[in-house]
Structures are given as C-alpha cells and as structure tokens.
Amino acid sequence: MGSCRVVQWATGITGMMALRALIEADKIDLVGVRVYDPAKVGVDAGTMVGMAPTGVLATDSKDEILALKPDVVLYMGGVERHPETSIADIVDLLAAGADVISTGSSFTDARSIIPQWADQLEAACKAGGSTFLGVGIHPGFWGEAIAPILSRLSFHCGQITVRESLDYSSYASQAMIFEVMGYGRPIDYKTAAPAGSAKINPFIGTASIIAKSMGLTVNSIEQFREKAVTEKELNVAAGIIPAGTVGAQKVGVRAHCGDIGIVVEHVTWLDPDVNVEWSSHHGYEIEFEGEPSFRCQLTMGINGEDHAEMACLGTAMHAVHAIPVVRAAAPGLIDLADVPAFTGTTAAKR
C-alpha cells in the first residue's frame, strides 16, 4: 500500500493527539485538518501541535475537505453533543468516497445503537464505495477486542463484566463534564449523555459486538445509571462542582444472552471521597464469573501520567492504527467483530 491521504477532523483533546501521530506516521500523507475554533482556521497543522510546519492549513469548511478527496478521514467531531450534525458530516464523507474512522462512542456499533443511522451509513458507503468503522477505548476497544480473546480461557461462564473506572477531575472538557455527563448538576438532572438516553446508549454497542464475536444472541438489554453527590465543593479542571451535586456516577447496560450475561459499565468520579465502591481498579477491568473466575486489568499511564489523558491518547492511536485495516476492508459499515486483529503500526519504530 502506498501513501494514504488522510484528513484529521476536529482538534479537541483526542484530535490533537491523533494529529501529531498522523504527522509523524510513515505512509501517511496528511492533506487536511477540519477545525471548529475560528482561531485555528488557517493555522498550520504542525504549528498547532508544536511541531515543524507541514504546509497543511486548517479549515472550518466541509466543502474544502471534500474537495481534497482524502482516502481516510479520522472523524473526532462532537458526536456526543451534536449527533445529527455528525451523522450528516460522516454520510457526506462516505458518499464522496472517503473511508471514515470515528471515535464517537455512539458509532461503535450503529446497527444496535441507532438502526436508522446504520441505514444512512450503509447507503453512503454503497454510494461512495467506502468503509466506516467506529473505534475508541471504552467503548471501542477494551470490551470489544479483549473480552472475546479472554473467553478462550473460560470453561463455563455466567457473566462477563467490562468496566472503565476513571478519575475525571483532570478532564478539562466543560462540554463533556457538564453537558454530556451531567456533573455539577442536581442528582435528578436529566443529562443529554448518550449513556443515559433511552435512545442512544453506546454501551449497547459494546455488549452487542462482544456477543457477535462470541457467537451469542442478545435477547434483551437493560440500561442503568447510578449517581453519588459530593458533600463539598470541588475545583476540577473543567470548573467548579457545587456541593450537593453529582460528583460520581456509574452508567451502563446488562445484556441477557441466554445463560450468559454481559455487563458493560462506565464508572467515573471527580474526587476520591465521592468514589462509591463500584470498582476495584483505577482503569479498565474485565471479569469472568464462572470456571475459572478471573479478572484482567489495564492501567493507562503507569509512570505518573494523567490517566484520563493517556486514555485519550490510546483512543487517538487506536484510530490511527486502524487506517490500514479500514483501507483493506470491503466497502460497508463494519465493527470490531468484522476486522482481523491488528497491531500498533507506529509502535515498533519507537
């Protein structure tokens, strides 16, 4: 495979990390950067991430991006906050012939999460001869890629639990913390988060992909959300969390697959004093209850780095490393159960 023409769409926390990796990667020709911040329009991609200039200037125009005719677009726009706009963008990109890899949690398995979106994506893929894949870390990697591999060790299993447990006090995104996740709000506040919506729940996709990889049928799915309030005011990276508002939460789903249950959880907190004992590990866990019973744990950032920041970097790199797999795939809407195992294509050269 020759050089691949790639566009980085959005330059938030994860998008900036992906942009740096694209500039450094072999066999990647960065041809465009889509930004939302007016201050970034016209800024060189390299300058934006503290590297040497690349000659690629950022734009806020979708038409300019489409005119570049990229092979692949890494789409990291505000899927959680603006799902309708995001789906429209992705459909246009796919229909124009660009493969799209998205880190939006709602796109890991569009068929099980929002069927009408899947229909639009599949139609766009057919029109453009393109491929769409949703990735991430949780959702988008930990459960979908690792749990099926761990099942090789199991004799009998009654329940598989996939869990992410993270301290979000250093996560600086106000939109994600306050608007999407509902932190700093009264405990009865109705969040706009996909994980709390009856219509959009990304963890349904995780459970469905695990079941698909293991040859299981999902008979029914239950959603849950539990919250805990902080008794003191918290000053976190995203802003002030008033006393008496949400300071920790657990959201997720339980999928019933005959004799096996699949539980997918997302546990977060803004202060250790608010961290209800919902998990035993800061990071990622997969537990198999059965014969044998076992737990597998993953920690992002083992040398003093910020865990949330390292998780964002892991998400960015998963998308970058998926580029060759998506380019080699047949046109259509695919998920992690459909693709062969792939490795970190840039890790070995470090």
What brief labels describe this structure?
alpha/beta; six-stranded parallel sheet; Dihydrodipicolinate Reductase, domain 2; 2 domains; six-stranded mixed sheet; Rossmann fold
Question: Helix and strand layout, with pairings?
Answer:
Layout: E1 4-9, H1 13-24, E2 28-34, H2 45-48, H3 62-67, E3 72-75, H4 83-95, E4 99-102, H5 110-113, H6 115-128, E5 131-134, H7 142-150, E6 156-167, H8 174-180, H9 202-213, E7 220-229, E8 234-236, E9 239-241, E10 246-257, E11 260-269, E12 283-291, E13 294-298, H10 307-321, H11 323-328, E14 332-334
Parallel strand pairs: 1-2, 1-3, 3-4, 4-5, 5-14, 6-11
Antiparallel strand pairs: 6-12, 7-10, 8-9, 10-11, 12-13
Helix pairs in contact: 1-10, 4-6, 7-9
Descriptive notes:
This protein has 350 residues and is α/β, with parallel strands linked by helices. It has two domains: 4-137 and 311-349, 3-Layer(aba) Sandwich (Rossmann fold), CATH 3.40.50.720; 142-299, 2-Layer Sandwich (Dihydrodipicolinate Reductase, domain 2), CATH 3.30.360. Helices cover 29% and strands 26% of the residues. It contains eleven helices and 14 strands. It has helices at residues 13-24, 45-48, 62-67, 83-95, 110-113, 115-128, 142-150, 174-180, 202-213, 307-321, 323-328, and strands spanning 4-9, 28-34, 72-75, 99-102, 131-134, 156-167, 220-229, 234-236, 239-241, 246-257, 260-269, 283-291, 294-298, 332-334. The strands form three sheets. Strands 2-1-3-4-5-14 form a six-stranded parallel beta sheet, sandwiched between helices. Strand 8 (234-236) and strand 9 form a beta hairpin. Helix 1 (13-24) crosses helix 10, helix 4 (83-95) runs parallel beside helix 6 (115-128) and helix 7 (142-150) packs parallel to helix 9 (202-213). It is globular and about 50 Å long.
